[in-house]
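Justification of computing resources. Each target in the renewal requires a structure prediction run like the one illustrated here; the chain below, 182 residues long, is used simply to show the kind of job we budget for.
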Amino acid sequence: MLKLAVLGLLQREPLNGYRLKQQLEMFMSCSICVNYGAIYPLLKRMEEQGEVILCAEQGQEAGQCGKVYEITPVGKKTWYQEMLVYPHESWVNARSRFLIKFFFFAQLLPEERVQLIEHRLMSCRLRLAEKKALEITDDLYQAKLQKRVVEVIKSEIEWLVEQLQTEQLQQNSFNQKTFEVS
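Resulting structure tokens:
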């Protein structure tokens, strides 16, 4: 997930590790936890894989790393592939991954956004059915937590339905314009 987020941010502009961490925390703190011990080794691996290049070195100020990284065409291809994949992972990681993808939705085609939303919506509906099927124990606090989990999933489903409707309208508009130009 961190790689997906880093590549997405580097598509906007070249950044050093310090600025990457700042932007990740500012824009994605609800879905990803970041520390320098993860960022710098990741940047090194991505550089070795040809996904980023070292494009400049700046003077170090206030603990900022002087190495500035830029995404390569290989990195853009990797990012795009990662945006459209549905890895089998835990519920928590899948939620975080979707939120990161949603952050970069503007860089995808309308039909790709629709597919990602539909997949997440299906996952949420399945999760809701699982949670509703669970027996609630006599433990008051477990019952309250179970109720809260169900409410959170329902809220996410409502939000996803709204996003899906918006995307479908945009997709229809995009298709209409493409048809008129043809």
